[in-house]
Amino acid sequence: MAELFGDFERHPLMPLLREMLLYWQGLCQEGRLPGRKDLEPAKIPNILPWMLILDVVPSGADYRFKFRLFGTGLVERAGRELTGLWFEEAFPADEQQAYFIQGVNRVVREKQPLGFYGHSMIQDRKHVRVAGLILPLADDGETVDRLISVNLRQEVAQG
């Protein structure tokens, strides 16, 4: 976990990400990636509201991503349901979109988890901590065909 998040390991958002990473690692068998069929939602109930699953669709040298699942907590936070939408339909083309697309393409190519942590400012100038984890899935154990992402936010009190 430390290699994914560095010095942020002790922050309050990390326990759920750690739980998901350990669960995913437990599904990896003999050097093979787990597939969607290996996931048992009942084993990760605290994570489900904050989880999304993206279908990975080859597109030229890169990939396109379609929301297969958008957790209830994410729907509430976003104010809309994204299941069934392509990523570029759901989010405007901006620097954050490009950053996310670069990250998910990296996970697909490298077949390795990616953690992210930072701060952002949202509506009404509220500051939030943002932390997440992107994990590859492969029904055949090798070719990444889906990604799981857990996306957490925590409002930061202003002093």
Please describe what this structure looks like.
By secondary structure, this protein is α+β, with helices and mostly antiparallel strands. It has a single domain, classed as Beta-Lactamase (2-Layer Sandwich), CATH 3.30.450.20. Helices cover 28% and strands 31% of the residues. Strands 2-1-5-4-3 form a five-stranded antiparallel sheet, with helices on both faces. The longest helix is centred in the middle third of the chain and has 16 residues, at 95-110. It starts with a helix and ends with a strand.
Keywords:
single chain; 159 residues; alpha+beta; Beta-Lactamase; 5-stranded antiparallel β-sheet; 5 helices
Give the topology string: H per helix, E per strand. HHEEHHHEEE
CATH superfamily: PAS domain
Number of domains: 1
Q: If you average the pLDDT, what whole number results?
A: 85
Describe the strand arrangement of the main beta sheet, using strand numbers: 2-1-5-4-3
Radius of gyration: 15 Å
Give me the number of helical elements.
Answer: 5
Our measurement of the CA-to-CA distance between the termini, rounded to an integer number of angstroms, reads 30 Å
Question: Which range best describes the helical content: under 10%, 10-25%, 25-40%, 40-55%, 55-70% or over 70%?
Answer: 25-40%
Strand-residue proportion: 25-35%
> Tally of extended strands?
5
- CATH-level-2 architecture: 2-Layer Sandwich
Instruction: Please summarize the sheet with the most strands.
Output: 5 strands, antiparallel
Q: What is the CATH first-level class name?
A: Alpha Beta
Query: Structural class of the helix and strand makeup?
Result: alpha+beta
As residue ranges, the low-confidence spans are: none
Task: Tell the overall outline.
Answer: globular
CATH fold name: Beta-Lactamase
